[in-house]
Amino acid sequence: MPTLNWVGKDEVLRYNPPYHTLEKKYTFNSRNDTSENMIIKGDNLLALKALLPQYENKIKCIYIDPPYNTGNENWVYNDNVNSPKIKKWLGEVVAKDDLSRHDKWLCMMLPRLKLLHRLLSDDGVIFISIDDNEMANLKLLCDEVFGSGNFESFIWKKKGGAGNTEKIIGCLTEYVLCFFKQKKAGIFNYQKLDRTYKFEDEISPYNLESIEKTNLGEYERPTMLFAIIDPKTNYEFYPSKDKRWTLGKQGVEKALENNQLFFDYNKNKVFLIKRPDNYELSKNVYYNLLTDCGSLAVAKTEINSIFDNREIFSTPKPLALLTRILEIATDKNSIILDSFAGSGTTAHAVLELNKKDGGNRKFILVEMEDYAENITAERVKRVIKGYGKEPENSATGGDFSFYELGDRLLEENGNLNEKVSIEKIREYIYFSETKEKCEQNDSDFLGECNGVAYYFIYKKDDITTLDFEYLAKLKKASSYVIYADVCVLSDETMMKYNITFKKIPRDIKKV
Ligand SMILES: C[S@@+](CC[C@H](N)C(=O)[O-])C[C@H]1O[C@@H](n2cnc3c(N)ncnc32)[C@H](O)[C@@H]1O
Question: 276 phi and psi, to 5 degrees?
C-alpha cells in the first residue's frame, strides 16, 4: 500500500501529547451537576487526549470539518512537537504561498486522527468534510490510520451554481470521507426507503413503472401491441394510442406469474411493480451522492436565524447534512463527537434528532477559539431553549456541561503536577485502571472493579508508604492494586494478600 511522506511526519509520530484534565465551568439546563453532553473549549489534540480514559472505544459517530487548508483560513500550526523544524512553524498563519503548507496540515491532522481512531467504538464511523485542497492527502493519511479497506465516501452538493470567481470548472461539491473502525455490512442503519420508493405493501416498498413506450412509425413492432388481460376480471388492457408495450407476450406472462403487474382501472393502464432486488440488502445501501442535504447558503441562513439574523460565523455546515450522517450512522443512544465544532451544527442536529425520534444521543464538541462560549455554546443554548418567532416550537430541550482544558497531569519529567487536584488524579488513576468512573471521594480507596480493590495512597507534600499496618485498612476483596511512593511489604505478604504494588509516579499509566 502506498504511504504518504512529508516533512515532520517522523517527529509527529514520536510525539505523545500530554494528558490534561478537563475543568467543568458550568452546566446548562440540567438539575444534575454534570450533563453527559459536553462542550470543551481548547485545542482538540489535548481535548481528545483528555477524553481518552472515559471514551476510548465508546464513540459511535465522529464528524469533523477541519480547516480545508485553502490558504485563506488563518489557521496556525501550534502543536508542541519537540523538533527544531517544527518549532519554526509555530504561530505563523498558514498562507497559500507557504511551500510547507501541506506538511503543516498533515502534521496537524495525523495525531488528531490517531486519537479519533482510538475513541471510535468497534462499530463506529468517522465522517470528514474536505475539499480538493487536501482530499488526496487526507485519503492516504486516513488509509494509514484507519485502514484502506475501511473506506467509503460521499460527495455533498454544496451549492446550485458557481460564481464567476471559479475560473475553469465551477465546483459545486465537496467530499465527506467516511472510515469505519471495522467495515462490515449492517453498521449503517436501514435507510428510510420512502426517499426512493413511493409505495409500500405487506411485501416491501415498490415503485410503479410504465410499460408503455411511444411507437415510432418505421420501428412499429406489432408483437408489442396486444391485449393484456387482468386474470382477476378478464378485462383487456391495450396500449394508449401511438404507444406499444415495452414487454413482449413472454415478458408479460412472466410478470403475471410473479404478481408484478398492477392494473390501474382509473387510468386504464398497466404498470410494472418494481420492488428492491434484495429487500434486506437494499435497505442499507446508500448512494454516495448527497444532493438533498442543504447547502452552504442554507447553513448560513440557519445560523443567522438563531442569532437574530446577524452574520456571526462564516463556515457553518447545514443541519440537513449532519442529520443525514446521524440517521445513517447512529442509534438512539450513540455518543457523537465533533472536534472541530465551529458553530455547533453537530450538537444542533443531535438535539433535533433526539426531539424527533425520542432518542438519547449524546454529543461532545471541541472548539479552541474564544467563540466556543459565545457562538458554539450559545447556539446550543438557544436551540435547547428555543429561538426565532416561536421559541416554544423550536426548543429541543436537553442540556450540556461546558469545560475548559485544565493543567497537565504529569510534568515533563514524569512527576505528578502539584497544581492538579487530588480528585482529578484519583479519577485519572481509576479510569486508566478500570475504564470506570471513580465514585469514591475520600480516603485512599478508589473503588472496586471485578473483585479488584484499587487504592491510591498519595500526599502532595509527603512520601507515602505501603506497610504492614496499612493492610488493616483494606476492604475485603479478591485482590488489590495499591499505588504509593514506597512499599515495604515482603514478597510473601504481597502474594498472600494478592497485592500488586504500583509506584507513584513511575507506574501511572500513560494514555
Ligand atoms: C470549518 S469550521 C467547522 C464548522 C462546523 N462544521 C459548523 O458547522 O459550524 C472548523 C472549526 O475548527 C476549529 N479548529 C481548528 N483547529 C482546531 C483545533 N486544533 N482544536 C479545536 N478546534 C479547532 C476552528 O476554530 C473552526 O471553528
Answer: -55, 140
Give residue 164's pLDDT: 67
Dist. CA 312–CA 105, nearest whole Å: 26
72 Cβ inside 6 Å of ligand 1: no
For the Cβ of 43 lying below 6 angstroms from any atom of ligand 1, the answer is yes
The answer to whether the CB of 44 is under 6 A from ligand 1 is yes
Q: What is the Cα 202 distance to its own chain's centre? A: 35
Instruction: Output 388 or 345, whichever has higher pLDDT.
Output: 345
> Per residue in 163-202, pLDDT tens?
766 678 889 999 999 999 999 877 888 665 555 778 877 7
Q: Which atom of ligand 1 is nearest to the CA of 108?
A: 19
Among protein residues, the one whose CA lies closest to atom 14 of ligand 1: 340
Is the separation of the CB atoms in 94 and 75 below 8 Å?
A: yes
Pocket probe for ligand 1: among 340, 369, 383, the residue whose CB has the most ligand atoms within 8 Å is: 340
67 lines ligand 1 (CB under 6 A): yes
Question: Ligand 1: does its nearest atom lie under 6 Å from the Cβ of 367?
Answer: yes
- Coil/strand/helix, residue 351: helix
pLDDT in tens, 8-17: 999 999 999 9
Question: Quick check: CB of 342 below 6 Å from ligand 1?
Answer: yes
Is 69 touching ligand 1 by the criterion CB < 6 Å?
Answer: no
**Residue 153 backbone dihedrals phi, psi, to 5 degrees:** -150, 155
Work out the pLDDT band at 283, boundaries 50, 70, 90.
Answer: low
Classify burial at 409, counting beta carbons within 10 Å of its beta carbon; exposed 0-12, middle 13-18, buried 19 or more: buried
Q: Which domains does the chain have, with CATH numbers?
A: 16-72+114-191+284-407 (3.40.50.150), 193-278 (no CATH), 410-503 (no CATH)
| Burial classification of residue 475, based on how many CB atoms lie within 10 Å of its CB (0-12 exposed, 13-18 middle, 19 or more buried) | exposed
Taking the centre of ligand 1 as the mean of its atom positions, its distance from the CA of residue 316, in whole angstroms, is 10
* Angle in degrees, CA 107, 111, 114, rounded to 5: 135
In this structure, are residues 156 and 174 in contact, taking their beta carbons and an 8 Å threshold? yes
pLDDT of 291: 93
24-69: pLDDT as tens digits:
999 999 999 999 999 999 999 999 999 998 999 999 999 999 999 9
pLDDT in tens, 317-327: 999 999 999 99
